[in-house]
Amino acid sequence: MITLYTLAQSRSHRSVWLLEELGIPYQLQQFERDPITRLAPQTLKAIHPLGKVPVLQDGELLLAESGAITEYLLDQYGQDRLRPI
Ligand SMILES: N[C@@H](CCC(=O)N[C@@H](CS)C(=O)NCC(=O)O)C(=O)O
């Protein structure tokens, strides 16, 4: 099962959209932003040393950067969909 680590109001929505569009089963692990600073919580650094989202886990692979996550999902699960011809 794929896990996507997210924050509300973040570019994680790109990855969620793509997972939905490709029909890939996944679970969300959502972190809460600090209510004052709106930054990610320190606990996110256990997943990503810089404390950024999105981060995708697929088996033993842990992948950061929304663009890289998009490329990975299309390569692994896209079946030639959603790419320019
Ligand atoms: N280049 C990265 C940027 C990641 C990034 O800056 N994510 C923001 C949310 S859009 C974040 O995690 N912010 C939390 C923080 O900086 O505390 C990507 O495209 O994934």
Task: Give a description of the structure.
The protein has 85 residues and is α+β, with helices and mostly antiparallel strands. The protein has one domain: Glutaredoxin, CATH 3.40.30.10. Helix content is 27%, strand content 24%. It has 2 helices and 4 strands, in the order E-H-E-E-E-H. The protein has helices spanning 12-22, 66-77, and strands spanning 2-7, 26-31, 55-58, 61-64. Helix 1 (12-22) runs parallel beside helix 2 (66-77). The longest helix is centred in the C-terminal third of the chain and has 12 residues, at 66-77.
List keywords for this structure.
single chain; 85 residues; alpha+beta; Glutaredoxin; four-stranded mixed sheet; 2 helices; 4 strands; 24% strand; elongated; binds glutathione
Topology:
Layout lengths: L1 E6 L4 H11 L3 E6 L23 E4 L2 E4 L1 H12 L8
Parallel strand pairs: 1-2
Antiparallel strand pairs: 1-3, 3-4
Bound molecules: glutathione.
Counted beta strands: 4
**Largest beta sheet: strand ordering:** 2-1-3-4
Give the name of the CATH architecture: 3-Layer(aba) Sandwich
Strand content: 15-25%
Major beta-sheet overview: 4 strands, mixed
How many domains is the backbone divided into?
A: 1
CATH topology: Glutaredoxin
Uncertain spans: none
Secondary-structure element string: EHEEEH
Q: Which outline best applies?
A: elongated
Q: Which ligands does the model contain, each kind named once?
A: glutathione
